[in-house]
Amino acid sequence: MVRADKCDTESKPKFSIASSDSEKQDHATQKLKSADVGRKRFQFLASLCAGIIGVQSGITLTWTSPILPYLMSDASFLPELSESQISWITSLLALGAIVGAVPAGKIADRIGRKWSIILTTVPFATSWLILIFTRDVVSIYIARFVGGIGAGAACVLVPVYIGEIAQASIRGALTAFFPILLSLGIVLSFVAGAYCPYATFNSICCALLLPLVLSAPFIPESPIWLVQQGRKAQVTKVLLTLRGSKYDITDEITVLQDDVGKVMNVQGGFKDLIGTKAGRRAIIVCVGLMSFQQLCGVDAILFYTVTIFQEANSTVDPFVASIIVGLVEVFITIIVATVIDRFGRKPLLIISGATMTIDLAILGYYFKLKNEGDVSAIGWLPLTCLSAFNVFFSIGYGSVPFTVISEIFPPQTKGVASSMSIVVHWSLVFAVTKLFPSMEDGMGPAATFWTFACFTAASTVFAYFLVPETKGKTLQEIQKKLERSKSSTEYPVEPL
């Protein structure tokens, strides 16, 4: 009994100590988990603040869809608009986007990613103020061009910034913020444009810049840019803010310094791009993907959504139908962000091209039937076709081209290739949106959509025969595919 009591007496402190140690360990674990969640939450918040400009881009891109019907109506403050004036109002944004996008990277390298993004509020605000306080067509031209400068720059700057502040484990989720918020801007444009007066709509759009301006003091600078500038103290401070005080930033700083050194030592020009067979084939893939992305008519459809539904005599109200199309865009963008890395690039492009061909062919046939007689029994078809078109564009040609382009070029020529893809993209946005009214007037809606269907059919063939599969491939493996040779290349093997 004495031994038992002694054992009990001695065991109690041991049990108590063990329990205390366990509690401390659990508490420490919880603190680490809390710190981990906290730092990732701040990365989400920083990405969200920067991505707010995506809402502005979406609104600016689709401003014409709900506004053109008003400007063309008897209630408009403008005299009757000609077809040429309508096409210029729609397409001048794309020319402004080229002006904004091409130098955006250089400006970001000079003044930083953060302030470059905040600087885009200037052309956006200027555009909205012109639209609010002026009432002539030339002012609308200027406003659309200036707004395009902001949209073009934002589409370059925000994805780069988010990619540079995010940890690898959540980079995919964070980079999805910009396209999701851009899609949300499209919906807001359709909703506000449908139910708000002209001046109120533009005032709301201008006011939506305030969240970015107010959040500016809390947005951290890109740690990669700070490393490039040699600001070591600020790099440490920013990484501790983004990652949390419990995170060991030493290794990450070393990696950032190595990466920056490599990039600065491998810059190349256009001659380097066309100097190899792989480079020339990569150019064909790049230009082809960016061309087919626009030649399917997606931006013509987005810029003229309400007008298309009005011409179709859809049984669904044109403004409501456009809002539904916008909501589908938001939903499918979120889905694509979560599944794109689970499938190969080629299958998504092929499926996208083939299904868009079917959607556009059916829509063209609907307009043919409309010209021949009553189509009220199938008045739901335009909304169905355009919603399906939006879905299948998003899962393939809406997202995959940018991914493939980022994967097929080596570091030496990636900057030149990115600039080239930007120019091709926005030039074709301009061409398609400028010519769309003339095509409808000269060829009719049926032939216009069948023309787009021919391009999407060609895009399917192009993807099948010429686009290499890049999912899960190293840069060296991709270069070998492009060379169609078993010989090795001089590019380093790095997982993509």
TrEMBL record:
Membrane topology category: Multi-pass membrane protein
Listed Basic and acidic residues bias regions: 1-13
Transmembrane segments: 42-65, 85-103, 115-134, 140-162, 174-195, 201-219, 282-307, 319-340, 347-367, 379-404, 416-436, 448-467
Record bears the keyword Membrane: yes
Domain Major facilitator superfamily (MFS) profile: 42-471
Keyword set includes Nucleotide-binding: no
InterPro entries reported in the protein's UniProt record: MFS_dom, MFS_ERD6/Tret1-like, MFS_sugar_transport-like, MFS_trans_sf, MFS_Trehalose_Transporter, Sugar/inositol_transpt, Sugar_transporter_CS
Gene3D superfamilies registered for this protein in UniProt: MFS general substrate transporter like domains
Subcellular location: Cell membrane
A Pfam entry, by short name: Sugar_tr
Similarity-based family: Belongs to the major facilitator superfamily. Sugar transporter (TC 2.A.1.1) family. Trehalose transporter subfamily.
Name of the protein in question: Facilitated trehalose transporter Tret1-like
Organism: Dinoponera quadriceps
